Amino acid sequence: MITQRLHTELDQAGLHASLLIRDLNTGHEIGINPDTPYATASLVKIPLALATLQRIRQGELDGATPLHIKPDGPTLGPTGLGRFRHPTTIAIDDLLHLAMSLSDNVAADALFDLTPPAHVTQTLHQHHIHGITVRHRIRDLNETPAERLAPDETHLAHTLAIQAQTAGHGHRIPQLDVTLANSGTARAHVDLLQALWKPTTIHPDTAARLRALMADNLIRHRLAPEFDTDASTWSSKTGTVLNHRHEVGVVEHKSGEAYAIAALTASQVPARQQPAAEALIGRAARTLRDHLRAN
Question: H helices of the chain, where?
Fold first, then answer.
């Protein structure tokens, strides 16, 4: 069976993985451990953007409102506002773009200041999306062991991340503990994608704006190489923290086919850079999509 073969291949490569692929036109799906919860890292920015956009549409926020952002504390993320040296002023609409396209952590936290985590989770429940829990801003649990080590010692942080997991999916590192961190399953994220691409309770304009933000994602090394072609478009959001590598998105074909894909993974290899693992995650997702498409 294809799922068992891929599960074995992922396991041999040191990847614990949860994948789900759903045909958004038929509802048919295929997956590997799709109900296993993971700490979701920057995937949380999708429900954050949804809650923010919904409040803009309802008139609670104005997307043109400027917010004053100033450097504060340790760098948050490899790019974006976390690297700025001087104060700046940015509108809410533009913070949404930075949070989604660059996965800008400072931009996301500025949005969380307006719409707290509990409100974001409530928004998901309003749209009958369960299995994703938003508990904290990015900064609240941002300082992992990797930030305390020199660049040539980050493998030690990954070793700790691998060894510190408990049997019940808890973790001695708070950022990876599904009872403390922002968390969710592959199935819940596919449900969220379906709610955005086939909106029933989400306003169509809100869903369209969020789809456009996901289409602008500039982080395209994980699943995009397998799904972005001249005959298709790939819209997605990644999430990465320590040994966790995730991506969720939708591939749309000119023929009208559309597939929601969620890949949540945790590597058991203590290394920060793992291009072979990134490629395998994409290949496994593509293989499952192709099998679903053929059947």
Answer: 2-12, 45-57, 92-101, 105-114, 117-126, 154-163, 186-197, 204-215, 224-227, 275-294
